[in-house]
Amino acid sequence: MSTEAPQPHDDEPPPPGLSLDVDYACPSEGLPGEDDFRHWAETALALALESDDDRPQTLEVALRLVEAEESRALNHQWRDRDRPTNVLSFPGEHLPGLPWRHLGDLVICASVVAREAAEQNKQEAAHWAHMLIHGLLHLLGHDHQQDEEAEIMEDLERRILAELGFPNPYEETRQKHTRQS
Q1: Residue 141 and residue 96: Cα distance in Å, rounded?
Q2: N or C: which end of the chain has fewer CB within 10 A?
Q3: How is the chain split into domains, by residue range?
């Protein structure tokens, strides 16, 4: 009997495209389906990486949809914020030379997305798409800590959402901000 660990089958690379693993860790009734998430993610990645000559053939993303308590616990553990949040992004490690790349893991809280969509008078599907795209852009290295970075990221989000037929998610926010100024 051999005690040797099984070896990976590296003679067969994964198929090209997006490998998206969706885990519904909360009730899935009323939530977007895997086909929706795949379509949104493929569109987002195609537009976000259109000028990337070194783009791997296959991109892997794990998406976990959770309830508020799991989101709160992860947000507390990783960001020191003791409340649930809409999306958390955990970038993967890039291993050069491979024809695939694990971009990372996304955790989206269903109840926070639903609450925010209602509070902001947004179509729930549009807000789900926005949160997925927002998380994917974080996995690709985009950020919004500085105004210039935020503008670049928000412009890309708007462009992707428009391609998907969704409205500008920042329009109402900007109008409210302008009225308050």
Answers
A1: 16
A2: N
A3: 17-47+56-180
Alpha-carbon distance of 173 to 82, in angstroms, equals 25
- 94 labelled ligand-binding: no
Q: What are phi and psi of 153, to 5 degrees?
A: -65, -45
Q: CA separation (Å) from 131 to 51, 117, 176?
A: 23, 11, 21
Element (H, E) at 34: helix 34-48
Query: Is 144 marked within a binding site?
Result: yes
Top pLDDT among 53 and 32 is at 32
Give the pTM: 0.85
Please answer whether residues 90 and 104 qualify as being in contact, where contact means their C-beta atoms are separated by less than 8 angstroms. Answer: yes
Q: What is the pLDDT of residues 99-157, one digit of tens each?
A: 778 899 999 999 999 999 999 999 999 999 999 999 999 999 998 888 899 999 999 99
| Whole-angstrom distance, CA of residue 62 vs CA of residue 144 | 22
d(C-alpha 51, C-alpha 167), whole Å: 24
Q: How far is CA 2 from the centre of its chain?
A: 42
Q: Does domain 17-47+56-180 have CATH number 3.60.21.10?
A: no
Bridge-based pairing state of the strands 87-91 and 100-109: antiparallel
